[in-house]
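Practice problem 4.
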């Protein structure tokens, strides 16, 4: 079985998907999807790339929108993990 490879939306590095966190957009919020069960368009990033992703608006690019997306739920999730 080939290992699924995904690209981080911030640094663009290709990676075994288990190294990346899946996030989904629900409404205007970006939510973590740790067990890959949430519906919606997904994006993948390194947990350590969150700040870069936020700064570069990688989430807007990944979800193809110009709207402001709230990354607060994701930020809270990552902070609690530290
Ligand atoms: Zn990255």
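Answer key:
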């Amino acid at each position: 079985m080939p290992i699924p490879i995904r690209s981080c939306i911030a640094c663009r590095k290709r990676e075994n998907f288990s190294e990346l966190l899946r996030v989904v957009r629900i409404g205007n919020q970006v939510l973590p999807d740790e067990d890959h069960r949430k519906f919606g368009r997904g994006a993948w990033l390194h947990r350590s790339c969150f700040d870069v992703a936020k700064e570069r608006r990688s989430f807007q690019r990944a979800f193809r929108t110009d709207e402001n997306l709230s990354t607060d739920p994701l930020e809270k999730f990552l902070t609690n993990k530290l």
